[in-house]
């Protein structure tokens, strides 16, 4: 791939990333503010994200598995902590014991496995009502965990992006657990949880989506800056004559003539078929709607409004996360994590 320039790229705004982390850190009050960088930093590139947020002062990072931890361990500066949210399987033990990262133990069998292996410190996940990962809040967590050195006890909110009773229920259960299980710190809030109120902060927060420009809660609108701007190159220009159709299954038929550009971008790049007929690109703020169905590697846009565009020119893909989510039916999380390996990732 040496010297190869991809026909699609992500423009990534490092200042916006840091500004978002600082806003979340301010909203976290006296609690420390970490960063969830699993899934390759939600698709942006975990190494660059970790480097930039470490420089900004972030000291707690979260990934899902040990493959991710292995790749990021060389970047861990002094005082930086890296937690592996899915804990440890048997297959992970050799790597986990030798690693500077620590597991977030999620099940009694994981606790037993870690205790049998020695006494390096760990984190623990308590399930307070999401019924996904963690020790059940109703079990004797203090008993199960007795003798372990625990850095952070955490839990995860199921519905922090909604005003629902479950939020306070989870928080109260977590506060009760915190009284009984000794640890250095307690952590509950993700991005949306940080926006709820001060009762959810505890000692450490764990934002993900809002770092990367997602708006997790109405309170964050106007504060969270865009980080990701996908751009695609025009592969071919053509003219659609009234009566012509375009793309698979001919879902769009022209009522008048259209100037069309074919882009190097498709559902294999995370630009899923939900954008067919609903998405858009733009050049200098002029909207260029997607015509017909998005293909695996190609999409067509109407460039009648900017007829001077040629093969080789670049266009911005409309990827404002709340708006693109409404257009495509995908969540803001899916929009980011689906961005694949074929983009050049260019940080500014
Ligand atoms: C992914 C994740 C986060 C970050 O959540 P966002 O909604 O992206 O802010 C925090 N905690 C846990 C346990 C997670 O899995």
Automatic annotation (TrEMBL):
NCBIfam families in UniProt: alr (TIGR00492)
Cofactor dependency: pyridoxal 5'-phosphate
EC number: 5.1.1.1
Species annotation: Sphingobium soli
Name the UniProt record assigns to this protein: alanine racemase
UniProt KW keywords: Isomerase, Pyridoxal phosphate
SMART domains documented for this protein: Ala_racemase_C (SM01005)
UniProt keyword Ribosomal protein, yes or no: no
Family membership: Belongs to the alanine racemase family.
Substrates-to-products reaction catalysed: L-alanine = D-alanine
PROSITE patterns: ALANINE_RACEMASE
PANTHER family assigned to the protein according to its UniProt record, in alphabetical order: ALANINE RACEMASE, ALANINE RACEMASE, CATABOLIC-RELATED
């Amino acid at each position: 791939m040496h010297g190869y320039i991809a026909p699609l790229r992500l423009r990534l705004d490092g200042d916006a990333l840091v500004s978002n982390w600082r806003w979340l850190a301010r909203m976290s009050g006296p609690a420390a503010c970490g960063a969830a960088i699993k899934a390759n930093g939600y698709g942006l590139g975990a190494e660059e994200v970790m480097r930039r947020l470490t420089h900004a002062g972030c000291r707690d990072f979260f990934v899902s598995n040990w493959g991710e931890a292995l790749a990021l361990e060389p970047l861990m500066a002094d005082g930086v902590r890296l937690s592996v949210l899915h804990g440890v399987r048997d297959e992970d033990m050799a790597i986990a014991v030798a690693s500077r990262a620590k597991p977030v133990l999620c099940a009694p069998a994981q606790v037993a496995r870690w205790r049998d292996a020695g006494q390096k410190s760990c984190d623990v996940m308590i399930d307070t009502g999401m019924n996904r990962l963690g020790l059940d809040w109703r079990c004797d967590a203090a008993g199960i965990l007795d003798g372990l050195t625990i850095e952070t006890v955490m839990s995860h909110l199921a519905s922090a992006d909604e005003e629902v009773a479950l939020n306070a229920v989870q928080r109260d259960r977590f506060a009760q657990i915190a009284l009984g299980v000794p640890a250095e710190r307690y952590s509950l809030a993700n991005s949306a949880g940080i926006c709820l109120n001060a009762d959810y902060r505890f000692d450490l927060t764990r934002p993900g989506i809002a770092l990367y420009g997602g708006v997790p809660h109405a309170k964050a609108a106007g504060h969270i800056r865009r980080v990701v701007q996908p751009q695609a190159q025009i592969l071919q220009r053509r003219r659609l004559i009234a009566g012509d159709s375009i793309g698979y299954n001919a879902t769009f038929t022209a009522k008048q003539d259209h100037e069309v550009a074919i882009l190097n971008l498709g559902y294999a790049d995370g630009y899923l078929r939900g954008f067919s007929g609903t998405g858009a690109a733009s050049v200098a703020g002029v909207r260029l709607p997607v015509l017909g169905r998005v293909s695996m590697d190609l999409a067509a846009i109407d460039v009648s409004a900017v007829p001077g565009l040629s093969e080789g020119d670049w266009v911005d893909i409309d990827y404002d996360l709340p708006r693109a989510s409404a257009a495509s039916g995908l969540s803001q999380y899916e929009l980011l994590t689906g961005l694949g390996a074929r983009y050049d990732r260019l940080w500014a």
